[in-house]
Amino acid sequence: MTDRAAAGAGEPRALPRSIAQAFRLAAGELGHCSAAWLFVNETERGGGREALAVLRDELGRTYPVLDAVIASRLEGATGPPVAETLDEVVALCEGASHVVIVGIEARFMDALVPRLSARVHLLTQSVLSPDWDRVASNYPGRLDLIGLQDFQRYAGSRSVLVTYAYGTSPSSTYVVPAWLRAAGNHGRTQFRALIGWGALARPFGVYPRWLVETSHDSFTHLVTA
Amino acid sequence: MIAAVVLLVTLVAQAVVPRARLLIVLSGAAVSLLSCVISGTADTRTLFADVPWDVLVIVVALGLLSEYLASSRVFGLLALHATRASAADPVRVLILFCTGMYCVSGLVNNITALLLVLPVMLALLKLIGVDQRYVSWTLGATLVACNLGGAATPTGDFPAILLLGRGAMTFTDYLSSALPQTAVALVLMLVVVLAIRPARDLEREGLGSRLALRIMEQLYRNTTLDRRRFLPGIASLVLMFGCWSLLPASTGVGPELIAGVGCLLALVSTPLWSERLLRTRVDVEAVLFLLALFLMVGAVRASGAFVALGDQLTALPLSDRGQVIVFFCVVAVSTGLFSAGPGMAAFLDVAERLAARHDPATIYVGLAMSVCAGSSLFLTAATSGPMAQVLTERASIIGIGGETIRFGFLQHMRPGLLGFAITLATGIAFAWPRLG
Question: Which chain A residues are within 8 Å of B212, Cβ to Cβ?
């Protein structure tokens, strides 16, 4: 269901009529997974598991990460797998002078950025058009914004590329489209490590719109819980 | 006469084709200069010497200081507090953001104020769920509040800066007269807008409001005030306000010198970053636009057209009070058609003639209120209007009925007319007892 269709229904509703638009904005600036957990927690607090089912019904097809997170929640998960994987990602970044992050996941970045001694850069590519300055303002003095035209300036033997991996299966996983541009054949040889950080272990139940499939060997390290 | 025609044609052309505004006014200025030189009315040296350069210094200095303060993230944090205070309730959002816009645009120029406040407001509108009626009234009222805030202080917008720069009024005289008038107009407008009940069809509480609040908190979750930029910026601003208010004119330290030195004091505290700011963020468009206007107005002044206009006004078969009211109305409508800069620059000469016969403060602040009213009349009357339109279109807001939300000329019409009427009426009501 599109934002417009979700907004247009007229009968009494368990969910606010602006919820699709609100999720899109949140997913753009917090990341699909972080926004999904925020919506899941607030919706469940307000309307219990029934409201979660309605949320999944209304937005699940448009936002597949949200669909998978609701499924995880209904099976007892309590949050994204940040704590379980953080140390490994930090260890992989150790000794690097530049860490370039592709894609936004607020809960993961909030945990990672303070632990890094390297300069951290965020690639400003997203189909959801976030307010990049607002995103960066949450990491005062710790995060630079860089465009695709600039990111190779930070390549080198002491540089690391990091992105988030969703819906990982034994052979492939899904990433934000910008990853394919940043970590293409020429980019792969220019960084010490290309890290996929598992934000969502569960395979997708619906078509993974907003994301693109990539094989495990597009990373030098795939860190999952 | 030719200079007056060139000015009029240029003003119409820049209002009709705002995308080529700068090119049009620069061409108009060139033609005015040529016509003056060829006709022997004035030479270019005289016309350039008549440009109020001090006003341009104040515009540049305050623009830079606005950028400096904005980089401290103070306005984003204020917007977050306003969101919390509103509890994401549509009515409270309208009141708080209009009031916030009024306060911010009193401190920094209108465009900066809009760029600081509107993105946060539009994000909030997307989160709380809105319809076309609510957006039209809320954004329209916010634009009027932005214009009122700009007129409230001598540093808020160009018309007041011009009065300050030309020495027509002192800082405190303007502030003490204009602040109460604009505050009353803002309250009146909010009362009328709320009586129209723009949020009558919206959800007022529940999960939507809670989610909106939580998301806004998350968007600014780790945002902190950059004290290294905020403290020098705010200290400079306070110092400038103090000097403008307290330093007597006899010292020879004019408002432009205070603005320039005050701004530089803030900039030198973060030299490397300030150097980049100076090289990239000086508002060249505003400076060129105003320079071209001043040259055209100078050419008209040299032709004696303003004296003739003033004579015609004072020859109207009306009482002194009636002549001033007609003047205010003409200024307001002209500003609505031609925008604030030209309105103020062109009519200040006429106002000076009226100020010789009435209380000068009443005439000048009435003039500023009329320009402010005209700025609210149409979306195209002030630069902030088209910018609000662009920002709203870029935000791609979908209404709760599934409709695409728009904010263009037509959607602004009703709140604009209301703002125009209330601002002009307030200005006239305050001036009335002082015009004998």
Answer: 22
Amino acid at position A15, single letter: L
- The answer, yes or no, to whether residue B409 has pLDDT greater than 50, is yes
Any CB–CB contact under 8 A between A113 and chain B?
no
Question: Average model confidence (pLDDT) for chain B?
Answer: 89
C-alpha–C-alpha distance, residues B184 and B181, integer Å = 5
Does A26 sit within 8 Å of B218, measured CB to CB?
A: yes
Q: Which of A75-89, A102-116, B298-312, B417-431 has the lowest mean pLDDT?
A: B298-312
For residues B436 and B431, give the distance between their C-alpha atoms in angstroms, rounded to a whole number. 10
- How many residues are given for chain A? 225
Tokens of A41: 């927690």
Domain ranges of chain A: 3-74, 83-223
Cβ atoms B214, A42 nearer than 8 A: yes
Which residues in chain A are closer than 8 Å to B211, comparing Cβ atoms? 16, 19, 22, 39, 42-43
Token digits of residue B186: 């803002």
Do B127 and A25 make contact, defined as CB atoms within 8 angstroms?
A: yes
B61-87 mean pLDDT: 87
Highest CATH level, class, for A83-223: alpha beta
Considering only CB atoms, A131 lies closest to which of B119, B212, B401, namely B119
For residue A114, how many other CB atoms are within 10 A of its CB?
A: 11
Which of residues 73 through 112 in chain A touch B, CB cutoff 8 A? 106, 110
Q: Which of B129, B210, B400 sits opposite A42 (nearest CB)?
A: B210
Closest approach of chain A CAs to the CA of B29, in angstroms? 38
The pLDDT of residue A12 is: 46
User: CB contact, 8 Å: A8 with chain B?
Assistant: yes
Phi-psi group of B111: left, alpha or beta (phi > 0 → left; psi -120 to 50 → alpha; rest → beta): alpha
How far apart, in whole angstroms, are the C-alpha atoms of residue A69 and residue A55? Answer: 11
Each residue of B128-161: pLDDT tens digit?
A: 889 999 999 999 999 999 999 999 998 888 788 8
Cα-flanking dihedrals φ and ψ of residue B378, to 5°?
-120, 155
Report the largest interatomic distance among the alpha carbons of chain A, rounded to a whole angstrom: 59
Instruction: Determine whether the interchain pair A139/B222 forms a contact, defined as Cβ–Cβ distance below 8 Å.
Output: yes
B76 vs A19, A22, A134: nearest CB:
A134
B interface with A, Cβ–Cβ < 8 A, is: 73, 76, 119, 123, 126-130, 203, 206-208, 210-212, 214-215, 218-224, 226, 397-402
Closest CA to A188 of A207, A213, A163: A163
Q: Six-digit token pair at A104?
A: 């936004």
Structure ipTM = 0.91
* CA B27 – CA B295 distance, rounded (Å): 11
Residues of A in contact with B78 (CB under 8 A): none
